[in-house]
Amino acid sequence: MTVRTIGGICLLSLLLLLAPLRALAEGEQEVYSQAAELLMSRGFDEKGQAIQLLADNNHPQTQLILTLLMDSRLYYNKEDDRLYQIDDYDSGKPAISITTGDRLVIEKKRDFKKITLNNQLRSQVRQIQAELGLKASDLSRRLAAVRAMLGSMDSDTLSLVRKAYAGEQSAAVREVMQVAIAIGELPRADEARARDAIDTLGGSLEPDARNALSQFASATDSKALKAAAEKALAEIEQRTNLYGGIETLYFGLSLGSVLVLAGIGLAITFGVMGVINMAHGELIMLGAYTTYVIQQLMPNHIGLSLIVAIPCAFLVSALVGIAIERGVIRFLYGRPLETLLATFGISLVLQQAVRTIFSPLNRSVETPEWMSGLIEINPVLSLTTSRLYIILFCLMVFFALLLVLKRTSLGLQVRAVSQNRAMARAMGVRSEWVDALTFGLGSGVAGVAGVALSQLTNVGPNLGQAYIIDSFMVVVFGGVGNLWGTLVAGLSLGVANKVLEPWAGAVLAKILVLVFIILFIQKRPRGLFPQRGRAAEG
Amino acid sequence: MRMKKLAAGVALGLGASMLSFAALAADTIKVGVLHSLSGTMAISETTLKDTMLMLIDEQNKKGGLLGKQLEAVVVDPASNWPLFAEKARELIEKDKVSAVFGCWTSVSRKSVLPVFEELNSILFYPVQYEGEESSKNVFYTGAAPNQQAIPAVDYLKNELGVERWVLAGTDYVYPRTTNKILEAYLKSMGVAESDIMINYTPFGHSDWQSIVSDIKKFGAEGKKTAVVSTINGDANVPFYKELGAQGVTADSIPVVAFSVGEEELAGIDTAPLVGHLAAWNYFMSVDSEQNDEFIESWHKFIKNEDRVTNDPMEASYIGFNMWVEAVKKAGTTDPAAVQDALIGVAVPNLTGGYATMMPNHHIAKPVLIGEIQDDGQFAVVSSTPGTVVGDAWSDYLEGSKDIVSDWRAPLACGNYNVKTGKCSGQNF
After folding, report:
1. Distance from CA of A42 to the nearest CA of B (A)
2. A206-253, pLDDT tens digit by residue?
3. Across all residues in chain A, what is the average pLDDT?
């Protein structure tokens, strides 16, 4: 397909140069109406022909139509059979004609029908866009265009890239272009040039460069070249492994921060107060649902709604937490078994309540634009933005909590009550009030964790159940009553899980981590950072 | 021991006499609905409960069945597999239902199977499953692997030119069996071992970073790669989110899923999913008169224009109508008579064709491949020319390829081995 496209473009541009100007405009008109008709038909084959027709004829509207198609913003009107651009498909919103630029107000939504693509068409469009993109003025588009062509280098694309290379200013684009040229040249070059190409490819981390090298290594007759290619492959392998290790570490840290976020509220209620709160997961779930509700309330500000949701989720979960503490748990202090049963019951009640209020179906929480996407460091290592935010958010929550406990009077009272209740009371601390607030604080933090989790996983009634075991695991492993322990435990469990996962599989990795914790707790029953002092003994 | 037997005998006799009495006095026909309304599976199963209530309601408006009104008996097995068996027994023995519509997961079906066989009642099972089963008492209106998984793989191979395969699934019986069948099928078509990557994850797995990164690396080796996903339920959302986050688009590595339908998409931000595929026997977007009617009455019944319809709902619809036709044909609701009458019954499906109940208690269905659109609906990109008959025992598995199922006399066997000429009864 590519060969034909390029051939078509070259031939046609030649023809167009020779043809008189007026005929050109008429020809374009004809091409456009033909293509438009094909686009409006139902079959994907016809749509493919239309796209090819526009590209082959180098039609000035090609770029626009292709972009709109990819963004699914191209519609046609069933009444006048013309193509329209619609950014917001709703009655009362404007529809812009592709040919004339006229604006129309959508009266009936059903009059307009979207032109849909399938995967084959999408890759066809992407290929054409790449070829057009080589000449784009935008640097990132040129870069993307060259990279998209790496996988399909042949003599035609080679000459295209060579031509573009001569006029290219940006060093970054030139570098990728060199790789592209090397991939294209490698199977056809003489010995000396092949060596150069192998050197260039050996220095690149592009997966296509590696594929080209390994193909060349198995196909070439020359022993020397084969050895050179294999050496380059080994080097690439080594560097890929290094970046793979960094990637695993990143994955581990981000999984770890999710664990820390989920566990840190529990570190307060369970760690500091000693309450086995089985409803902790449901408090996280409430936070996630609060995010959903806030997002429903401000549908046009997805990013802002997420920020607003943080204090709201804290409040909602904290209030529910205080209600649980005042209503149930305070009667059960010192009776861990009863607390466990009672809070387990509460967790079921909360789940079913959410099921009744919001329906048992999952709710969809949108991810804001600035949280989606990748930070690409090199072709084999890219960091997902959402995970980066989660790691940062986790650290922020952690240090804020640390500050509250170490630097505020509430924190002082919490620590006093947890260390020696009777003495604290004797000093005039209202221990009941402190209990309620501490439980509220722990619950509120769980709610904040829910906001973060809503970006990663389902917002549904079962959200909490998925995290309750992990939370307890992190707190117990870290050492009950120690925030730093929770942080270190969460992050190290995350990393351990991710290191094990590639060779043990997800199921076995999880089992291995649990077995490790069981063995560890046997050796050190108080966790990584045990609390010291007389109070801890009692 | 003897006392117990005696007591059981008395109870049975009492029950039988009560049954005949009830049959004489009752002016309604009872239909059991056995779907979880709480617990993990409530997310999927409550919709089917509503669908059944709607279908029964409509049938009553049409004058009921055999001159009687239908009455739904709804119980909640609460996503608890042993409770499914208890509730099934309760429905059949205590409520005396004529047929039961229910179950979602294979494990719940396996749990109620002995109950239905012991009491010789009828269960309609409306969900796609792994096959390798054919019971006298169960009618499978969902897809068997050859009605979903294999056509989907054919589509990827022939239309998209896929050469490398990632089989990703949740770690339980349906994905494991389906993947075993697919692996055997792919190898029979000459796909090398090194071009197949199989991956299992626990239920509700939420951290997909390394797996998606592995898939990305697996797909970057120059051959067109696709993911065949039997990932179940809640784990799908974080999986697709991670695919989107790591920039895996449908045109680089398409994912075809067997457990993701309109209902599941309603809870997801669909933007990163556009173009990924699903294989089903029904899509809400299918253009047919029956489908328009069905959607309209669904919206009217549930009083919400935004609710979607999905494949298991169609399977419930087909199953219910088949039962109604079979009862009419048999002239009685007696399960034994209805079981015989069901074979060969044909009712319209929602995609504009007919569904026929086959002698192996599976039905003939068209197979559709759809691409996810940004509005959470599917655009059909491929469909089989006719219907495909459900195959209870896969032709690609050792030990199961020689087995056939035919519940008509004189064979009347769910697992007849054509090589040894033996029927191993209901023990499978």
Report:
1. 11
2. 888 888 888 888 888 888 888 888 898 999 999 989 999 999 999 999
3. 84
- Give the Cα separation of A428 and A449 in Å (integer): 33
Burial A168-183 (b: 16+ CB within 10 A, else e): beeeebebbbbbbbbb
On the question of pLDDT at B300 being above 70, the answer is yes
> Which chain B residue lies closest to A292 (C-alpha atoms)?
B267
Residues of A in contact with B268 (CB under 8 A): 362, 364
- Output the CA torsion sign for A268, A274, A280, A281: positive
Residue B16 has pLDDT above 50, yes or no: no
Contact B237, A458 (CB under 8 A): yes
User: Among candidates A330, A248, A269, A252, which has minimal Cα distance to A471?
Assistant: A269
**Where residue B112 falls among pLDDT bands split at 50, 70, 90?**
very high
Q: Which two tokens stand for residue A317?
A: 């979960």
- Kindly report the pTM of this predicted structure: 0.79
Beta carbons of B408 and B342 less than 8 angstroms apart: no
Helix runs in B160-310, H state only: 173-188, 209-219, 236-245, 262-265, 289-302
Q: What are the chain B neighbours of A362 within 8 Å (beta carbons)? A: 43, 234, 237, 264, 266-268
The CATH homologous superfamily of the domain defined by B2-143+291-365: Response regulator (3.40.50.2300)
B146-286+374-389 classified as CATH 3.40.50.2300? yes
What local confidence, expressed as pLDDT, does residue A532 receive?
65
Would you call A431 exposed, middle or buried from its count of C-beta atoms within 10 A (0-12, 13-18, 19+)?
Answer: middle
CATH topology of domain A243-370+383-531: ABC transporter involved in vitamin B12 uptake, BtuC (1.10.3470)
In this complex, which of B202, B246, B250 lies closest to A510 when CB atoms are compared? B202
Please tell me which of the candidates B247, B251, B264 has its beta carbon nearest to residue A126: B251
Q: How far is CA A509 from each of CA A255, A487, A499, rounded to the nearest angstrom?
A: 13, 21, 9
pLDDT exceeds 90 at position A159: no
Within a 10 A sphere around the Cβ of A60, how many other Cβ atoms?
10
Determine whether the interchain pair A466/B206 forms a contact, defined as Cβ–Cβ distance below 8 Å. Answer: yes
Angle A377-A302-A470 (CA atoms, 0-180°, nearest 5)? 65
Query: For chain A, what is the radius of gyration of the CA atoms?
Result: 31
Q: How many other β-carbons are positioned within 10 Å of the β-carbon of residue A236?
A: 22
Question: What is the SS3 assignment for B74?
Answer: strand
Angle between helices A431-453 and A463-478 (to 10 degrees): 120
Distance CA A350, CA A363 (A): 16
Q: How many CB atoms lie within 10 A of CB B114?
A: 15
Note whether A284 and A303 are within 8 A (CB). Answer: no
Delimit the domains of chain A by residue range.
2-121, 134-220, 243-370+383-531
Q: Where are the domains of chain B?
A: 2-143+291-365, 146-286+374-389
d(CA A48, CA A57): 14
- Angstrom CA distances, B240 to A57, A216, B216, B227, stand at 38, 35, 13, 12
Q: What is the pLDDT of residue A25?
A: 59
Measured CA angle at A480 (ends A477, A482), to 5 deg:
100
